[in-house]
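Notes from the pairing session

We agreed to fold both candidates in a single pass and log them together. This is the raw record for the first candidate, unedited. Please don't reformat it; downstream parsing expects exactly this layout.

Candidate A
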Amino acid sequence: MSSKASSTPTNKTLPSFFSLLRSSLALIRQNFSAILGYTGWLLLPIIAHIIIRTTLGLSDLGTFLDLLANIILVFIAINLCNTIALHVPIWQTKFTNDSERLAASATATALAQKNISSVLWVIIISSFITLVGYALIIPGLIFATWFAFAPLTILFENTRGIAALQASRNLLRGRFWSAALRFWSFEFLILISYLIIAGLILVAFGWQPSTSFGEWTPPLAADTLMNFLELAVLPLIVIYTTLLYQALKVE
């Protein structure tokens, strides 16, 4: 596509926010068992978190042994998160694009592992730029929208580093506002839904809205339920973003 064409709105109309949301939910329903089975790997970091919280609460260990055990557990947890936290979303993204091919976990694992380092690097770069932009609020929102699809350009277009950021920004030329509306409408829906459900969980475990979190520590059970809540919503976030990316790629 020429630079002139890329700077003008495309003739294609992006699917509406509700259409993308319905398609995302439909894909999850159709492939629920496969998505649930593979997303279940994220239970490992949650289990590591539970073990760490439990160990930190033990008082019958000697000071040195307690410290050593915690260091080992934290090290294990960090490695689990590094290995799994990106591995599963990458697989979910690929699954959205080609569910039949990725029904076999071995194929999915190979594809995810191949791209983890590149995706992690571009996330670090885009996050740094976006955080700097958030100091002025509006630039941060613009940067977050520009670079939202950078990991997907790595997976589907084989870009790397700064080129992935540029490819993501180019997707939005001529369609920035329509894409931003769909992207942030979804983000807002997820945020509000999460806050409501998380708030209900915390209230059920004794938190009072008038109490600051500095004065009240959620019990382990509440912490665990909130981790499960984040785990449950991850496939929807990944699939919706992938479908929006695919819509933007249509010429």
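Candidate B (folded immediately after A)
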Amino acid sequence: MGTSMVVARPGLIRRFFAGLWRALNFARQLIFNLLFLAIVGILLLAWLASDGPVVVAPNTSLVVNLQGDIVEEYTIGPREAAVAEALGEQRFETRVRDVSQALDAAAKDAHITRAVLVLDDMRGAGTATLREVGAAIERFKASGKPVYAWGESYSQPQYYLAAHANEVYLHPAGALTVRGLEATRGYYKTLLDKLGVKVNAFQAGRYKSFSEPFTRTGATPEAKEADTLLLSGVWSIWTADVERARKLTAGAIDSAIADLPQRLTVAGGDIARLALNERLVDGLKTRDQFRDQLLQGGAPRSREDEETFQQVSFYSYLRSLP
């Protein structure tokens, strides 16, 4: 006697959801595979673009177009940096040792005849880092090669570096911001009290301010004194460096800041004109006027673009170094 087994066919609803799940799973795999291939392609393009030889022709200008923050070490990985570069995005960071290496090499490179600082895309840097780059610019100048700086506007960190150039130019409609240093600190006692959080702090000494944000609603006189002493010391270094680079009298920058309203009135409310009056810049020029000045000063025209001078960017030049 034979037996037969009857297999129940899944219901319509079950078949529908099973098919839907298979479709979603296929779509998920397809999307992830496409993303993986896209990332591999971008990295490959970035590698090919950055690995090409950079040939520096004679009588070339090194354009130091720093981007992002100037840092000791990158805080983003090489993959993220390569992807950003391949997508044409602005760099987030530039290492200070790369700037020093490029400027020191360019000072000895017979094909590099001048450096041009274009710092509009530079975000910021600490005072110690700025001084290190400034020293590299001074070493380049000591080789007998001139340094020019131009900017649509200058922030305080940007201007510190620009001040080390032989000639500094600002766009006629631009601004130069030098306002000193400041420090801010949050105080959370009111919030902690509302949350019912009690903070027990043990303090020894008048100038121990670490626990103040959790136990006070504002700074103690001792904390203000300590912060003022620190910031004043750093600011004195900053102004002395700039005044020495620009051949200004000692205290000229602090005097200009203290007397800003009156001096701005004399300049007709024109911040760029004020910077020129205070000898912080050597002239007011548009980008085209600055480019024409370099061409008239002996910089040869680029073979790729007759409208500009022969140049190599800082990042391209850095890749050419051994």
